[in-house]
Amino acid sequence: MPVDWFGYAYAATVAAGGIMGYAKAASIPSLGAGLAFGALLGYGAHLNSQDQPRPMLQLGTSLFLAGLMGARWNRSGKLMPAGVVCMISVVALVRNLVSYNRYLPLPTSSKGA
């Protein structure tokens, strides 16, 4: 499987956003969240780059960030940073669903014979 460059770039963008939030407003929660989510997304990109990709970590993190930042964007009405992170997260979510759909666990029915 090729390297998940998009996933690594997404992780770096989220981490850089946390660092920028700290530098601009001295927001320690922004720094912590940005670095934590960036690390999760980076590890998810690493998992997606394996011979047998495992996309669930990156999918779950992208879904959580899209929901959280989408709600913040809706509340504040500000495109930066919540709207941008929400949109990038939705793009990452869709991209991962399309790229790695055959590696996702499917629910099975356990009907008796």
TrEMBL record:
Keywords: Membrane, Transmembrane, Transmembrane helix. Its main location: membrane. It is found in: Membrane. It holds the Pfam family Tmemb_14. One of its GO terms (biological process) is regulation of heme biosynthetic process. The keyword tRNA processing does not apply. GO terms for cellular component: mitochondrial membrane. The keyword Manganese does not apply. The chain crosses the membrane at residues 26-44, 79-98. Belongs to the TMEM14 family. This is Transmembrane protein 14 homolog.
